[in-house]
Structures are given as C-alpha cells and as structure tokens.
Amino acid sequence: xxxxxxxxxxxxxxxxxxxxxxxxxxxxxxxxxxxxxxxxxxxxxxxxxxxxxxxxxxxxxxxxxxxxxxxxxxxxxxxxxxxxxxxxxxxxxxxxxxxxxxxxxxxxxxxxxxxxxxxxxxxxxxxxxxxxxxxxxxxxxxxxxxxxxxxxxxxxxxxxxxxxxxxxxxxxxxxxxxxxxxxxxxxxxxxxxxxxxxxxxxxxxxxxxxxxxxxxxxxxxxxxxxxxxxxxxxxxxxxxxxxxxxxxxxxxxxxxxxxxxxxxxxxxxxxxxxxxxxxxxxxxxxxxxxxxxxxxxxxxxxxxxxxxxxxxxxxxxxxxxxxxxxxxxxxxxxxxxxxxxxxxxxxxxxxxxxxxxxxxxxxxxxxxxxxxxxxxxxxxxxxxxxxxxxxxxxxxxxxxx
Length: 401
What we know:
The chain is of the alpha/beta class.
C-alpha cells in the first residue's frame, strides 16, 4: 500500500526581507561566483515553524524504516533551525552549541535520502560532498572551504540563505587515521580543517588562490560565517563494531553490527581514528539499520521515490505498460537483500532482470509487461515466450470465408 502524503503539503520556507543588511558583493566575490549566481544583497529572516514530528512524517514518505534516525534528525534539525529563526529575529544565544549530526550505517539504507528530503522540506540550500575528496593542504585534493562556496552557489548567490544551509559529508569514516580504521594518518589534517568550519569560521566568498586581474588590487572580501550552517556527516564505519566489541568484551554481548554501532561512544570513535576535537563537533549520533527483504519490499511499494516509477516511465516511453505483481516484488526484494548494498541492490537486480526486455520490446507489438515471480526467476525464458507468442500471432493464417 502506498503511504499517504504528509498533511503538511508543500512547505515553502526561506528568506524574506527584514532590517538586517549585508554589504554588496566585492569584485573578488564576482570573480568566484558564476554570473548567474553572484552574491546578492540580502536582508534575511527565516520562517521556520516545523515540529520534530512534522519532519519525521515527511521523511516517512521517502525512506522506509529508520524510525530512530528520523526521530533524532527531527529533533536536531528543529532545534537548530528554531535557533536560526530566533537569532535572525534578534533573540540571540551567544553560548548556543550547534547540534551537528553523525549518521552511521551500511550503504544503501537511506542516509543521503533522509538528509536531502529534510533539506527540501525546510527550504534551505543543501550541499553533499564525499569527505575523501579533500586533502590536508588543498593542493592535491579539494579545499574544505569550497564546501561553503558550493553552498552559496546552491543558494543562487544569496549569501544570507547560504549562511544557514546544510552541508552533508558522506564517507566521513574514510578520513579516520589509525590502524583500527585501516586508513592512513593523512586524514587527521583534513579533520582539523573541517572542525574549524563546523564550529564558527569566517570563509571568504572568493578563493584566496583565485588570480586577481593585472593592475587590480585585491579588495576587502565578503565572507560567510559558518556558525549557523548545520553539518551532517555519515559513513558505514566498517571496523568500528570490532572496536566497540573490544570495549564491551566484559559486558553484555551485542548480536548484530547494527546493535554494536548503536552503542558506539566517543572513546570508540577516537580509537577508530578520529581526533577528539573533531568527533566532539558531531555530538548528535544515530545508527541506521540494515535493510532486509521485508524492508526492501516496502521500499518498492511504499516510498514515494520508489524506483518502480522510474521503470514504469522508461517502458512507458515506448508505449509499454509495466505492471509489477506482489510475487515479483517479493522475489526482487529477496534477491536484492543478498547483494548486501541496501536499497541500491534493488536497481542491481531490476537491471539484471529487465535489461533484455528493455532492448527487445521497444518497437515490438508488446504493449504490456507483467513482472511476476516467474519472470524474475526466468527472464530469458519469459522474454522468449512473450516474443514467441507475438510472432506466432502475426504469422497465423486467417481462416477463409
């Protein structure tokens, strides 16, 4: 059964005029931001009235399960953006501690989908980046400050909007540096650079490495402060469960990797290879659960972003109606669970099953394809039977008279 839409309806939250002003963009700013997204003079206020349950209900439309993660995100996001709203209204909190979030869990369980869907609901700019693309110096890899400049671009050059956006860092476990994580210690420098951004830093809109035209002095640059930018990090944290188990060796036994990650503490993350200051900047932590066959079946049936719509659209472009039977979806979910890649396994299985149908049926007389268990178990035979029936139907002689 398809889950009902949230009663919230479309949420339009963002920037409206107020008395707060920003200085106009400098020449350096204009060099760093594309013409279509130059920094704008903005006078921001932020209309945020969501409650944690609203956020969780919205996420239910797109991500199946992960109840605890939705609850944690709902509380953290609402606390943070209520703080942003109050601050912009003049109700300052100089000692506010930002609730940056760390999501743990295997690939394909919906971590990115959770964050992206929440950002769309709240109406703030959102940037996703792979933490492994950054280097300590910025010369052989990315400069972490480019995250902020990317946020400005996503905000259409509106510096005020960018100053309370969301930055999502995936694969954060890959910058841990210790034997426990199996990674090189070079990630420690990246951690140090990131923690400066995650707390409270002023980042120039123009990159300092950007050349200045000959004869033109580098003028004072506009900057973005990061104190109201929410950082959310995630990773699969392969190997962290072993660290936790060693600590819990004399305590109660944990039965699964999900349960082990759920009880990981600060000391475990430090032993895994994170700097204490860095992991301290991610105080809100939650472990996402693995997806079994039942959850994967629900992902296809209930999520508004189910890939079934994508496949129906692809076949529909050729005038072919694609119908999925429950028996077929159950079998696809079971095969996808064996892939151990979460919801990503669904596409792996569907592509393997439907590839030949995509190739052979366009241009044929077939106008409907039913995906049931028999087709999933024997796609080649099913395709042969479908095409054989069509050919025999065309070649059957008409009866005289």
